[in-house]
Amino acid sequence: MASLVENELNKYTRKTGFTFGVDSYNTDENTTRTDYTYQFSKQFFNDRIRVKIGGRISTDNNENQSNNIEDNLVDDISIEYVITKKRNLFLKVFRHSNYESVLDGEVTQTGVGIVWRKNFRKFKDLFKNNRKSERETKTENQK
Which end of the chain is more exposed for a tag (fewer CB within 10 A), N or C? Predict the structure, then answer.
């Protein structure tokens, strides 16, 4: 049921940069915790910078529910900067908070990294030499 609601919401907001999600967990007291997540993304400067801001609202029935909403309203932030003209190399700065399990609880990750992305149709395409395929494409276009 949760994935059905999630899919329907995302279908209507696909072009706006909003996404929604529903995550359910079993807690140590045999109760279920449900998190309603959202994310907004926006691109700037000719799509060279992408900012993503997200958060979650939990239905956990503890006494700190109001603090939970305040703490998690914006708990997922990332900024990506495109380094190369091919748009496959990014610099990423992020802060993510997630509920991992009863033992771990809330886990916050903060960091900076370099991200390399490659699109491929088949698994073997991941390991192909791009220069060779680029030359083949140029040769075909010249014919």
Answer: C
Specify which residues 114 forms β-bridges with: 91
In this prediction the pTM is 0.62
Residue 89 is part of which domain span? 41-142
Average per-residue pLDDT for the chain: 75
User: Within a domain: residue 24?
Assistant: no
Residue 4 lies in a domain: no
Work out the end-to-end distance of the chain between its first and last CA atoms, rounded to an integer number of angstroms. Answer: 53
Q: What is the phi/psi pair of residue 100, to 5°? A: -90, -55
Q: Is the pLDDT of residue 63 over 50?
A: no
Residues in Cβ contact with 117 at an 8 Å cutoff, skipping those fewer than 6 apart:
88, 89, 90
**Structure tokens given for 135:** 């030359």
Instruction: Give how many domains the chain has, as a whole number.
Output: 1
HSE toward the beta carbon, residue 7, CA cutoff 13 A: 4
Instruction: Answer yes or no: is 127 within a domain.
Output: yes
